Amino acid sequence: MQLNKFTDYALRILMYVAQPRDLPYTIAELAERLQVSQNHAMKIVHFMAKQDWLITTRGKGGGIRLNPASLKLQLGQIVRILQHDSNVVECNNPPCVLRPICGLKSILDDAVEQFYRSLDQYVLEDVIKPQNTHFSTQSPISLINL
Asked: Distance between CA atoms of 124 and 76, rounded to whole angstroms?
């Protein structure tokens, strides 16, 4: 299964704004750092704010913050919402002539459901590694000899 660009960028934005800092994030920063157009980033942030995953504030000192409760959201739940229930195969548009004899769609639907169940084992917090600000000055060899 391939994630659509909306989902891909949304997950990246969630992970990016999950990094704690004093100042809120901005659309311009997200667009630049994640290499997405500001217009697309704005649509994604707006959508995620409506889901209550992000907290947005207008005006001076405003910006984007992660809703702390979002860290506990299951990844499968997030991806299901972002993907808008897109089908792996489209049997109706145009109508497929094989529909009367086809067993493939149900197999693919089951595979997608297993994909989401696998993602549901993790929450957003699980995919965010804390930034390591303290790098060791010792060489790898001296670390082994400790």
From this structure: 10
Rounded Cα–Cα distance for residues 66 and 52 (Å): 9
Half-sphere exposure in the Cβ direction for 141 (13 Å, CA) = 0
As to burial, measured by CB atoms within 10 angstroms (0-12 exposed, 13-18 middle, 19+ buried), residue 41 is buried
Is 63 in contact with 24 (CB distance < 8 Å)?
yes
Contact (Cβ atoms closer than 8 angstroms) between residue 81 and residue 33: no
Block mean pLDDT (10 aa), the chain, length 146: 90 94 94 95 97 93 93 96 82 86 90 94 90 43 40
The answer to whether 102 touches 55, Cβ cutoff 8 Å, is no
pTM metric for this prediction: 0.80
